[in-house]
Amino acid sequence: TDHPDLFFSSINIAILYKIAINVCLITMSRLVLHERNRPYMVKVGDQEIHLCACGLSNSKPYCDGSHKRTLDEGSELFVYDEQGRMKVTSFYKKVEGIQLRRIL
Questions:
Q1: Domain residues for 78?
Q2: What is the DSSP code (8-state) at residue 103?
Q3: pLDDT digits (tens, 9 = 90+) for 71-86
Q4: Whole-structure pTM value
Q5: Which of 7, 14, 16, 67 meets the CB 3.0–4.6 Å disulfide criterion with 54?
């Protein structure tokens, strides 16, 4: 009854993806650049699924509309956290660390 293909069903893949994302969020200590500020739209049968591409969704891999916070960025670089966003002004280390200016 243990068929190897059953392990890779779409439900199990979604669960494994969610676990991998959660583990990465807990253990990842690097910045990841997301340049897209709108979701990927995937057509599955009659449904249109919106997948997060900005990296800010709380419903990953699905879009929750968080990308709307990034629409005014232009060519500037920002770091997002729970308090809002910070504009990156330099990656060169100073005595006080990486220079970041918080944008309210």
A1: 73-104
A2: E
A3: 777 778 888 777 778 8
A4: 0.52
A5: 67
**Residue 79 resides in a domain:** yes
Report the b/e string of 7-44 with b at 16+ CB within 10 A. Answer: eeeeeeeeeeeeeeeeeeeeeeeeeeeeeeeebeeeee
Residue 86 lies in a domain: yes
Asked, for residue 80, whether it belongs to a domain, the answer is yes
3-state secondary structure (DSSP) of residue 4: helix
- Note the pLDDT tens digit of each residue in 44-72: 889 999 999 888 888 989 999 988 888 77
The Cα-based distances of 54 to 34, 38, 86 in angstroms read 5, 7, 16
In a domain, 35, yes or no: no
The pLDDT confidence band at residue 39, using thresholds 50, 70 and 90, is very high
Q: How far apart are CA 94 and CA 86, in angstroms?
A: 17
**Number of domains comprising the chain:** 1
